[in-house]
Amino acid sequence: MAKYILDFEKPLRELEVQIEAVKMSALEKGMDMSKEIGSLENKLEKAAADFYKNLSRWQRVQMARHPERPYTLDYIHKITSSWFELHGDRHYADDQAVVTGLATMDDQRVVIIGQQKGRGTRENLRRNFGMPNPEGYRKASRVMGLAAKFGLPVISFIDTPGAYPGIGAEERGQAEAIARNLMMMSTLPVPIIVIVIGEGASGGALGMGVGDRLLMLENTWFSVISPEGSASILYRDAGMARDAADAMRVAPSDLVEMGICDRILPEPTGGAHRDADVTAGTVKAALLETLAELVDMPPDELVEARIKRYEQMGQWAE
Amino acid sequence: MAWFRRSKKKILSTERRSVSEDLWRKCPSCGEYVYNQELQNAQFVCPTCSHHFRIDCRKYLELILDKNGATTELNASLVSVDPLDFKALKKYTDQITAAKEKTGLGEAIITVTGSVEGYPIVLCVMDFAFIGGSMGSAVGEKISRAIDHAREHHFPLAIISASGGARMQEGALSLMQMAKSSAKLSLFSSAGGLFVSILTDPTTGGVTASHAMLGDIILAEPGALIGFAGARVIKQTIGQDLPEGFQRAEFLLEKGFVDHIVHRKDMRATLSHLISFFGYERTADTDQQ
Ligand SMILES: [Zn+2]
């Protein structure tokens, strides 16, 4: 059971508590109620599965921000057999909102980059709530350069509420750092798999999110701006975020329809955090399958296909 | 001249603004009233304080391109659709219709081939008056095709940016245009093409974080607002006031993100010099603009 319950999850949570109470009282009274309990649990399971399959976009946004959700390093530790973290952009600092490193997944050597949120206040301050500064994008760029040099595929974990909007970030060229990565990633001569594990907000996400395939976990979002951001501009009321999430169509299934997302990865009932091991297993299997599709492609074909992929994105009339 | 403007200012203050707008404009920087004709003759730069007024994309074409050279618009009929059936306070389709009526443009960008002092060029100019110059699918596609055109014809490329960023009304599709245009610029760069990025007031958000910052040479108009995050968002996040001149062209020059700040009247000659310096050849006689 998750410790942190979102508002909309409360009815289900109450059912869960009721079943626990029945179990307790049966235990106390020494009665055999296993049949009744079993049937109640069955009902709950079905109701929960149904409930979580049909979450609204705004509910998925909240799930993507769930404080118990696995973050980039959680996945890395669960899916790799070796992990050697690389620090720093070699220009200014080591941005801890971005992690990069060398990893082995089964027998496959990969380079991993990812945005990293923190758990709890202290770590969140250190991780800047997963909002990279320019150094983060430049660290990712440096490590991708290493991947290109040694012919290693890149896996990018996306989980950010956006690039950090601060004075220093602007002074050190937040826009330039992101733009440079878009250009580099569009023609990097090794496979790039991008996987959204939480929030994919705006250019801050895209700055590490250009690749050959885009996978999204079921309870994630990816759009041009956060629902709150667009609500405050287009509705002049940040409280209209739910409507904005619908209007911008931020859910994984929307991105599949737009031709941006290639595959949605299912999460355990109740979200990735309910069973991080199962979720990590799903992620690992999907990454290995996707890698298998890409690793044998000659670099020039790979890049050509990647550019074609982005060429087709968007809708217009003429 | 100065006494003349000042005396007129007094008269204007007693008049209704809307009546006088056609003849006079108040400089938002120094507050002086400038005779519209005078402003036009000065490329819409305030004669008192050099404030660069925002101008529409057609005016830039006039300022930059040879008048006697052939100018051909690329993909003129490529326009936005409403892929998400988007509606907030306003319907996106209504916003597009209103923007078209207001500006007389089909989209927030015009892309052309023409020449600068005899040098052929592909020139893209964004227009802030069209939904904040925002980049949706159509703008991204027009830029991408213009870049391809420059690559195929070995023409240099210049993009004059004026934009609030990616267009929210097309959701993630707008975001992906940043990746698309950057990918095209990567190919263009590998093919040896020269890309001059010209930043005007304002250039922010996803446009700054894609093609605008990818120029081989990056020029900016004086005083132009250039940045990634909006000032309001930054202020909210950090809870303090922003330093004087923050996110202005001069600030970016100081921080190392702009090669040169160029006065609007010198932009054409600067562009021509750069194109010539990098070895492109004239195909027409020097134009006397
Ligand atoms: Zn002035």
C-alpha end-to-end distance of chain B? 27 Å
Bound molecules: zinc ion
Main sheet makeup of chain A: 8 strands, mixed
CATH class of the largest domain in chain A: Alpha Beta
Structurally, the number of domains of chain B stands at: 2
Query: What's the order of the H and E elements of chain B?
Result: HHEEHHEEHEEHEHEHEHHEH
Mean pLDDT across residues of chain A = 96
Sum up the structure in keywords.
heterodimer, A: 318 residues, alpha/beta, 2-enoyl-CoA Hydratase, Chain A, domain 1, 8-stranded mixed sheet, 14 helices, 50% helix, globular, B: 289 residues, 2 domains, 7-stranded mixed sheet, two-stranded antiparallel ribbon, 38% helix, 17% strand, binds zinc ion
What do you see in this structure?
The complex is a heterodimer of chains A (318) and B (289). With 318 residues, chain A is α/β, with parallel strands linked by helices. Chain A has 2 domains: 8-54; 61-311, 2-enoyl-CoA Hydratase, Chain A, domain 1, CATH 3.90.226. Helices cover 50% and strands 16% of the residues of chain A. Chain A has 14 helices and 9 strands. In chain A, strands 1, 2, 3, 4, 5, 6, 7 and 8 form an 8-stranded mixed β-sheet that branches. Chain A is globular. The termini of chain A are far apart. Chain B has 289 residues and is of the alpha/beta class. Chain B has 2 domains: 18-53, no CATH class; 55-277, 2-enoyl-CoA Hydratase, Chain A, domain 1, CATH 3.90.226. Helix content of chain B is 38%, strand content 17%. Chain B has helices at 2-14, 17-20, 36-41, 57-64, 92-103, 137-153, 171-190, 205-208, 231-238, 249-255, 267-277; strands spanning 24-26, 33-35, 72-73, 79-80, 109-116, 119-126, 157-163, 195-203, 217-220, 260-261. In chain B, the strands form 2 sheets. Chain B has a 7-stranded mixed β-sheet with strand order 3-5-6-7-8-9-10, with helices on both faces. The model of chain B is unreliable at 1-16 (pLDDT under 50). Chains A and B meet through α7, α8, α9, α10 and α11 of A and β4, α6, α7, α8 and α9 of B. Bound molecules: zinc ion.
